Amino acid sequence: MARSPERAIRIRASPDWRTLTSTTTAPASSASPAKRRPPKSSGGGLGRYIIVRALLIIPTVFILVTLVFVLMRSTGDPITAKLGGQLPADQLAERIHAAGYDRPIIVQYLEYLGQIATGNFGTTLTDNRPVTEILVTYGAATLELAFYALLVAFVVGIPFGLIAAYFRDKGQDASLRVFAILCYATPVFFSGLLLKLIFSVWLGWLPVAGRASVSAQLQMELLPNKTGLYTIDAIMTGNPAVLGDVLAHAVLPAIALGLLTAGVFLRLVRTNVIGTLSTDYVDAARSRGVSEYRLVRKHAYRPALIPIITVIGLQIALLLGGAVLTETTFEWKGLGFMLSEYLQARDFVAVQGIVALLAVIVALTNFIVDIIAALIDPRVRY
Amino acid sequence: MSTVVNIERLGVSFATDAGAVKAVDDVSLKVERGEVLAIVGESGSGKTVTAKTILGLLPDTATASGAVILSNKAGTAESDVVSLSKKQLRAVRGTDVAMVFQEPSSALNPVYTVGWQIIEGLRAHSSISAKDARAKAIEILGRVGIPDPEHRVDHYPHQFSGGQKQRIVIAMALVLDPGLIVADEPTTALDVTVQAEILDLLRRCRDEFGMGIVLITHNMGVVADLADRVAVMYQGKVVEEADAKTLFASPQAEYTKALLAAVPYVGTGTASAIERAAKRPADWVEQTPVVEASGLEIVYPGRFGKPGFQAVGGVDFVIRPGEVLGLVGESGSGKTTIGRAIAGLTKVTGGSLRVLGHEMNGVREREFRPLRSRIGFVFQDPASSFNPLLTIAECVAEPLVIHGRASNPAAARKRVDELLEAVQLPKAYGDRYPHELSGGQRQRASLARALALEPELLIADEPTSALDVSVQARVLELFAELQREFGFASLFISHDLAVVDILADRIAVLYRGSLVEEGTGAEVLGAPRDPYTQRLLASLPVPDPVAQAERREELRRLREAV
């Protein structure tokens, strides 16, 4: 099949699908039916596409890790950052020398790369724990929070976005747009405090902070093979009260973080669905007597989903950024919470490890998102 | 015969920021079963709005008055579309009246299979089982001429060619067996050979399925080919209505006469080409050609090690000084690629292409840049080839400033005014922005910009295909005049044989990346040797119903001969 020179995935849906299709199809000619190209199968192309995308992760991660390293080191060495001014200069120099921070940066960089390649992220400077252990323990907590927040973002953002698009420029649309702006313009620490004040302090419905109450935490600690994902651990205890406790703790942080993204999703769905609602194929379906509900739900939504999915990948990065604030607001002991702790303690090794992991997660998410977009859009094939 | 739709005193107006705008004014039309009514007119004449009213597809900003009485196919029920509720409208759409759209690529949802979309229409109107609906979808795809329908029913729209997509759109209209089909420019986006096939299919809809058809078009050739009756619309009003033969033989309204006179006719350019050829100096043939291609090959690279796509394979042609070469071919034939390669916008990958004495195969941008001032380019879509943030004068002045003929747009203004005058635009238009000009005016400005540096070579890529017929006629006239005056050589690219014929000294026919025929207009159009050229020529509908019926027979013979 001849490839169209256009990029296969575009960020914004254009109503003119012709640009993507006309160059890939041969002109019909009844005179030469034998020459008509056989329809291509979609399976083989997709496998190749996935492999290519997966291979692209390697340079992405390499660049991210290098950036983190350079940025962290450009502010000086960790020992001066922590102890500068507290120790005499000669003792400081001695410690720096002992830790190897006075060697050329390129040597340190290569050593760092070698360590990462063997899975060794070093030991934290402040509490002497392996960074790998911190990543696994607290990563699970952040993963859980991000998952619930995404759930909130989808459940709120997509239906409201569809409604706003259908009632474009009418009352429903205007109020939903204001809601969206409030969602993504309100800082998480403010909305978090507000939620806590209303639901925990005034109404007393939900816990104020943390990931679980002490008793629930104890029960989960006793599990032989705990995952660190409290929801799964709670289910494994077999005690509904523990699960309820864990879920109750997740509600407010998930809403605070999820609404931030929901606002973006809402606007994104609205804009793209408005675009697809005005296309010919929606009018064509309408001319065949298809109901308005189906037009929005089937004909406008799914093509609009392709650019939406692509942007979601970018949103995950923002979500993780928001997680740092959410976790500190709700004392949710995840990577973000630890990141701010280690930053305050000037623990470079720990910060470097956490930031690198977040970068890898973003790269992986984008990979997954590209695959999903390819599955939805029958035209994307490499 | 029974009436399927009866439009009575229809008026449609749109609410805009500047107040209500009347798009359709007091239009009354009737369509019988088994009859094709063509509504012709230029853009903005209200023909599409009239068509959309029949399906109740007007946007919320529109208000309709009058009545559109629609009957079902059996003639047992009548309803007035203008006053139906949303729910009643939905019941009528698809079952009583169906629509065929201009652009088949955008009328099909790209993320669902064609079978899914046909079945959806069926199930919107009856509680047919999924299995029966699928069987019906396969049957209808077969009837509109999609080969291997059992298999193709599960394919996505992008896996079909443009003509096949339009067949599928027509299949969707046919599957519910409505009494009336509204076809809005059904062949405008298609190549002329495909157009003939789609017109045949619509003729079958009328004859075999007994449908009434409202055919919206600006193409008088299409009207002559298919229509039984014609209504000519101008500025929202019907200015003339007659049966097709009468209208073409003796048009009554001034507007109709002008419209028919503007239609390009194959054979009109031959005389002037001969005249031009006679005036050329004797040593003209020996002069160095402006463009010389031999064995020209252009391959677009594939991605990630996939094989590239060969757009042009082994093409030879020359353009001599002051000569217009018309390049004709259908979409995907490589004609635009050749134009872009000459202008240095696309890389030449094989063979030789000499432009103004420079070899383009392996050329470096830095070497080529000085040559650019000697080449002008006119793009197809005047709406998108102008920077919307610059005034017309600034756009036209741009080449002058870039190539150092003026220090800034203001200094170039005198020259810009001369150029605007040359393309017959008032000087004051220089201060306007592109969106304030009509399509024809923009294309004139585009010509002015291309001619700003007095190029020796002008590449015009489908410069009139986005324009109305009467505007096209004036732009073509202007082009011929400018060519006489400035004496530039030109590559004139078009899919329309009749347009190329008006301007070209020689015509080259391109088919799937190779040149199948080349010669003077008289040779290529008068006595085509290549079967593709013959088919292309026979597919071109002429604005005369009697002559067109004969040509149709001729085309059928040619097709059977292949």
UniProtKB/TrEMBL annotation, chain A:
Keyword vocabulary terms for this entry: Cell membrane, Membrane, Transmembrane, Transmembrane helix, Transport
Residue stretches of biased makeup (Low complexity): 21-33
Family: Belongs to the binding-protein-dependent transport system permease family.
Secretion signal span: none
Transmembrane portions of the chain: 50-72, 145-167, 179-205, 246-269, 304-325, 348-376
GO cellular component, one term: plasma membrane
Disordered as annotated region, ranges: 1-42
Domain ABC transmembrane type-1 intervals: 139-373
Organism of origin: Agromyces cerinus subsp. cerinus
Primary localisation category: membrane
Subcellular location: Cell membrane
Record-linked Gene3D superfamilies: MetI-like (1.10.3720.10)
InterPro entries referenced in this protein's UniProt entry, alphabetically: BPD_transp_1_N (IPR045621), MetI-like (IPR000515), MetI-like_sf (IPR035906)
Membrane topology: Multi-pass membrane protein
Protein name: Peptide/nickel transport system permease protein
Highest rank taxon of the organism: Bacteria
Compositional bias annotation for Basic and acidic residues: 1-15
Biological process annotations from GO: transmembrane transport
Pfam family membership, one: BPD_transp_1
From TrEMBL, chain B:
Record-linked SMART domains: AAA
Any GO molecular function: ATP hydrolysis activity
Domain of life: Bacteria
Keywords: ATP-binding, Cell membrane, Membrane, Nucleotide-binding, Transport
SUPFAM superfamilies per record: P-loop containing nucleoside triphosphate hydrolases (SSF52540)
UniProt entry tagged with the keyword Transcription: no
A single GO BP: peptide transport
Topology class, membrane: Peripheral membrane protein
Record domain ABC transporter: where: 7-260, 291-537
Protein known as: Peptide/nickel transport system ATP-binding protein
Source organism: Agromyces cerinus subsp. cerinus
